[in-house]
Amino acid sequence: MGMDRRRPPESHLPLRPVEFQVLLSLATGDRHGYRIIQDAEDRGERIDVGTLYRALARLSDREWIRPAGRDPEDDRRNSYALTEYGLEVARAEAARLESLTQAARRGGLLPEVAR
Fold this sequence. Notes:
This protein has about 120 residues and is of the alpha+beta class. The chain has four helices and three strands. It has helices spanning about 15-25, 35-40, 50-60, 85-105; strands at about 30, 65-70, 75-80.
């Protein structure tokens, strides 16, 4: 399929939560699927295996992630890496979520943060 890189990253927002979790995990380095699931669990999110692999296929089709070869610690597992465009989309989604969080604080839905 391939992604039209001329489209601004913001045009893809909002992302599905699982897609953002995958991009967030890969922003810190290449990961295999099980490690992405573990990263999400460390953040308090649960991703089931089927949902993850469907998301990986979508993100790969969009060229937001790419195969990164076999995991060096376990050569039975395929790793994935974030592309530059994928990173731009992830940053745009993070900014969108931050803006919503700020609005929720101003609206009294979340407590203000002490400075």
